[in-house]
Amino acid sequence: MFRVLTLNNISVRGLERLPRDRYEVASALSDPDAVLVRSADMHSIDIPSSVIAVGRAGAGTNNIPVARLSELGVPVFNAPGANANAVKELVIAGLFLAARNICQAWDYARQLTGSDEEIDVAVEQGKKKFVGYELPGRTLGVIGLGAVGVEVANAAHLLGMRVLGFDPQITVQRAWQLSSGVEQALSLDDLFSRCDMVTVHVPLLEGTRGFVSAARLRLLKEKGVVLNFSRAGIVDESAILEALEAGKLGAYICDFPTRLLKNHPKVVALPHLGASTGEAEENCAIMVADTLKDFLENGNIRHSVNFPEAVLPRTPNATRLSIANENVPNMVGQISTALAQASLNIADLLNKSRGGLAYTLIDVDGSVATPVLEQIRKIEGVLNVRAL
Ligand SMILES: NC(=O)C1=CN([C@@H]2O[C@H](COP(=O)(O)OP(=O)(O)OC[C@H]3O[C@@H](n4cnc5c(N)ncnc54)[C@H](O)[C@@H]3O)[C@@H](O)[C@H]2O)C=CC1
Ligand SMILES: O=C(O)C(=O)COP(=O)(O)O
């Protein structure tokens, strides 16, 4: 029986993928094998030592201590692309909110008083304050051309915008998905200096923290717009406030209300709604439950943010060993020596590495006795061993 601890509500469609006869899933349980999470902050909790996998039903993993879990040989899985359409739709809505001053105009209409005739007069007098602009002919800069960024760039291009993209690590898959009408910016500064609107779709990392900075906002065209549906920390909030106050920035549309910005008249701050559609919640939960299940039952690794992809079909009548280890020389040599000394035959083997981590799947004919597993566990550099 695998024990799975949920730290957030996870769509039931995903949880259904973990059959009850083999999985106990609950928001409170001791000694879990795995954790399922959305945005709960795992930096501030003690992660039980029984945990061998963490699944994020979503994209961003900055709420998870990935480096610490890597040191323990624990893979962290996410659901790449599973909520991208939901985020794209909200970002496109954000472009219109900014271009047409929709929230400010709606606030104005809601506070009108008097008879319908008096309201009509106020409407016709007041509407000039909310004159907006249309998107064709405007330039949108998309920073980060991953699952979300590519969808946003393509949709904005279809709306008639000129679109510039910047992502020095764009993958071949995303490059194929990107509309040929999207132009390449040479640098962040190049992008900011050529755009009316800029939207960020990068993970929050040390290298991206605060990279929408005062200096870059100064490069943006007058009355520019910044959209941030990635993470609050990616923009320098005091620089945003300063640019709004100076009239340089026309609007800041984001998914992260903060005390500094949430009530500013030119800010629209939504309560982290990017991935909050029934469809995205289901897609994410199903994807992450499937990858978690395949890891727990077969040791296969797909969609991990810290481990290499490692998928090996199971050999009949074999015991599968799943071994996480440091990526140093002679690990496979020492492991296979331990198996040979126990007269065990290797039927199939896969060894993959990523950065400082390596991962080995070995199908061994017959069963593997506990002392052999103990011997492998004792090899210096081995982080985790399971027999499945
Ligand atoms: N508001 C919400 O509810 C949601 C927010 N997000 C946020 O959006 C982020 C992006 O999501 P996805 O597109 O699904 O992730 P992704 O991993 O598919 O794409 C991220 C892209 O950013 C690029 N990148 C990384 N550092 C960069 C840099 N310094 N400059 C330019 N590009 C850089 C990567 O090469 C990658 O292509 C997530 O990390 C998460 O923080 C994602 C989904 C929902
Ligand atoms: O997938 C992401 O990165 C998100 O920000 C979505 O977060 P959520 O699952 O809605 O708490």
UniProtKB/TrEMBL annotation:
Give the highest taxon in the source lineage.
Bacteria
* Keyword Oxidoreductase recorded: yes
* EC number(s) per entry: 1.1.1.399, 1.1.1.95
> Which catalysed reactions does the entry list for this protein?
(R)-2-hydroxyglutarate + NAD(+) = 2-oxoglutarate + NADH + H(+); (2R)-3-phosphoglycerate + NAD(+) = 3-phosphooxypyruvate + NADH + H(+)
Pathway this chain belongs to: Amino-acid biosynthesis; L-serine biosynthesis; L-serine from 3-phospho-D-glycerate: step 1/3
Enumerate the spans annotated as ACT domain. 320-388
* Family matches, as CDD domains: ACT_3PGDH, PGDH_like_3
The function of this protein is: Catalyzes the reversible oxidation of 3-phospho-D-glycerate to 3-phosphonooxypyruvate, the first step of the phosphorylated L-serine biosynthesis pathway. Also catalyzes the reversible oxidation of 2-hydroxyglutarate to 2-oxoglutarate.
What family is it from?
A: Belongs to the D-isomer specific 2-hydroxyacid dehydrogenase family.
Return the protein name. D-3-phosphoglycerate dehydrogenase
Species of provenance: Steroidobacter gossypii
